[in-house]
Amino acid sequence: MSQLTETQTAVAAQSAPAPQYEWPARRPFLSARWRHLVMLNYEIAPEIVAPFVPAGTEIDFHEDRTYASIVAFRFLNTRVLGLPVPGHMDFDEVNLRLYVRRRAAEGWRRGVVFVRELVPRRAIAWVARTLYNENYWYAPMRHAITPREQAAAPPKSLEFSWRWADAESRVTMRPAAALRPLAPGSLDQFIAEHYWGYSRQRDGGTKEYQVAHPSWQSAPAEDFTFDANVAELYGEAFVKPLSQPPASAFYADGSAVRVYAGERI
Predict the structure, then answer these.
(1) Confidence (pLDDT) at 3
(2) What string of DSSP letters covers 164-202?
(3) What is the DSSP letter of 221?
(4) Rounded CA gap, 117 and 115, in Å?
(5) Helix (DSSP H) and strand (DSSP E) numbers for the chain
(6) Any idea what DSSP says for residue 65?
(7) Average pLDDT, the chain
């Protein structure tokens, strides 16, 4: 039998079905779909991140730099312990997150810490603060997403807006027209592929929870804006870093997501 040429091998690899994603073999606390993620990623000084690092974790660096991300997205088909909660299944979220890691038996667990998470449902904010001590807060929100003709392509434009401290804020993006896998080793992959969450507890301890999802497709931003009173939302320390141009800005298509019950570390 003759050997395949390099071209034939490449074509076969492209046409082969992607391996099925393997979810953790336990029941999730929450399941949903995260869709249409707008991600603006800013280099930030480690000394700004340090006060937010929970006990048992450390700052996570990419090529000796650390980052803060403004992330806006749609939270869809949300279920808690497999059950839908009427009136709380589909909503927007906007958050500011930082990057940490913790060494476990299998190696580094790379995770995120949230400075503030905004949602338009008071009950969701209350549950997140009560069960996880996460910094969730209610804010009136709305979104506008303009699709392209090609169903699989990123939208033409996205806008997420919210009201905080009697002022309007918004983040917008025009993504490039084609999706692509996250490049291995890239900053965008570093930003998107942190699969753990960490939250400081009221007694000073730390709760760790797993966030599982397949790798996402992405598209670089052709244009974007972030307009908010950063001092009111996140504190004075974040004003300067979030006023600079971001190190990267991209759209991610999202996927099904499962969040597992937190455990103290």
Answers:
(1) 43
(2) ETTEEEEEEEEE-S--EEPPTT-HHHHHH---EEEEE-T
(3) E
(4) 7
(5) 6, 16
(6) B
(7) 91
The full length of the chain comes to 265
The pLDDT, as a whole number, for residue 9 is 36
Does residue 221 contact residue 173 with C-beta atoms inside 8 Å? yes
- For the chain, report the end-to-end CA distance as a whole number of angstroms: 56
Domains of the chain: residue spans and CATH? 24-264 (2.40.400.10)
Residue 16 has pLDDT above 50, yes or no: no
Q: Which two tokens stand for residue 10?
A: 């490449």
pLDDT higher than 50, residue 113? yes
Distance, CA of 99 to CA of 239 (rounded, Å): 18
Give one word for 20, left, alpha or beta, with left for phi > 0 and alpha for psi -120 to 50.
beta
The rounded Cα 92 to chain-centroid distance in angstroms is 12
Beta bridge partners of 56: none
Cα–Cα distance between 119 and 251 in angstroms, integer? 20
For residue 6, the surrounding DSSP H or E stretch is: helix 6-15
Cα–Cα nearest to 115, from 175, 184, 199, 209: 199
Q: Are 95 and 38 in contact (CB under 8 A)?
A: no
3-state secondary structure (DSSP) of residue 41 = strand
Q: How far are the Cα atoms of 34, 37, 160, 228, 254 from residue 74, in angstroms, in the given order? A: 6, 7, 9, 19, 9
Distance from the Cα of residue 168 to its chain's centroid: 22
Whole-prediction pTM value?
0.89
